[in-house]
Amino acid sequence: MFITSVELREIRLPLVHPFETSFGRTTERRIILVRVIDKNGQEGWGECTAGEGPFYCEEWTESAWSTLKTFLAQRVLKKEIENAASVWELMQPVRGNRMAKAAIETACWDLDAKQLGLPLWQHLGGERREIPCGVSIGIQNTPQDLLEKIARELAAGYQRIKIKIKPGWDAEIVELVRKTFPDIQLMVDANSAYTLFDVALFRELDQFRLMMIEQPLAHDDIVNHSELQKQIKTAVCLDESIRSSADAAHALAIGACRVINVKLGRVGGHAQAKKVEEVCRAGNIPVWCGGMLESGIGRAHNIAMATLSGFTLPGDVSASSRYWEEDIIDPPVSVSANGTIIAPDQPGIGFDIALSRIEAHAVRKEIVN
């Protein structure tokens, strides 16, 4: 692989419905897309999943753009690169900035798979083509709105429902949902909104037969999560706390969780996601693919990652239409009536890039060569 240019584009996509979590409400996504082009004119596409502000983590759209343009693109340009798995090491001198790194790294995996004539999911070592899907439902205006939204998603076939919680929108809401839908696979996501002083709340949630409670405590904590897991029956799932395979190994060693959510951007791309999956599989800890309100390019990469054998639980990979009036890939991602997605069999990410749509939504572009 010899990359001659790295193209950056920021696009702005309005969400079909606002998405609210414990740290804010999103109505429009500012998404950085990366296209890498090799000496033969072949291309690969990746997506930076950083948010509009530094709330999920310290990265955000502006910081990622500067880091990509000034530092990371230079690390991969005009070099003979053995394969996509080695791209992470080239970017290692830049500390942190995993979401920015993942944007380039995943684009290189797409390119590498295309050069080999392989679907990306096969190139990554995926073992099943059909993946189970769940949905993530943000905090709603009213409890009734939430119930109606859950009913619609279940009717669409989704196998698992995740609802966001925060102080004041937690135990009573979960009780209502469980009474209304007694048999569904249900989990909650706190996005770090609580502390160990809230143990009583989590013990109360034990009665509702939740699959897991995702990231209940601080975004950078493992130790307190270990203390919490000892005191409740429901499985703790770590998200923000797991940025590397070493983090995953430490969390498992001290019993901080019984499930891990893997996000490509959070860990730095496919090579690092595979390492996290391997650590968890060795420890008999299930993993699943988390979502960051991705466009179709990021969603396609998530589909490929979720075919790895350790991804045994339904993830947040859902249909394009849940988020966008019109996605930037063709065909848009769709979910079967049974709540599954079938990974495409075309080389690379397996979807056509709708460049005209990307350009229509683009607010800036930079070519680094």
Give structural notes.
The protein has 369 residues and is an alpha/beta fold. It folds into two domains: 3-117 and 362-368, Enolase-like, N-terminal domain (Enolase-like, domain 1, 2-Layer Sandwich), CATH 3.30.390; 123-342, Enolase-like C-terminal domain (TIM Barrel, Alpha-Beta Barrel). It has 13 helices and 15 strands. Strands 5-6-7-8-9-10-11 form a seven-stranded parallel beta sheet. A four-stranded antiparallel beta sheet has the order 3-2-1-15, with helices on both faces. Strands 4-13 form a two-stranded antiparallel sheet. It is globular. The two termini are 15 Å apart.
Which key features would you list for this structure?
369 residues; alpha/beta; Enolase-like, domain 1; TIM Barrel; seven-stranded parallel sheet
Give the second-level CATH assignment, the architecture of the largest domain.
Alpha-Beta Barrel
The string of secondary-structure elements, in order, is EEEHHHHEEHEHEHEHEHEHHEHEEEHE
The largest pleated sheet is described as: 7 strands, parallel
Determine and state the CATH class of the largest domain.
Alpha Beta
N- to C-terminal distance: 15 Å
Q: Beta-sheet strand percentage? A: 15-25%
Q: Could you say which structural class the secondary elements and strand pairing correspond to?
A: alpha/beta
**Overall body shape:** globular
CATH-defined topology of the largest domain: TIM Barrel
* CATH homology group of the largest domain: Enolase-like C-terminal domain
Which strand order does the major sheet show? 5-6-7-8-9-10-11
How many separate structural domains?
2
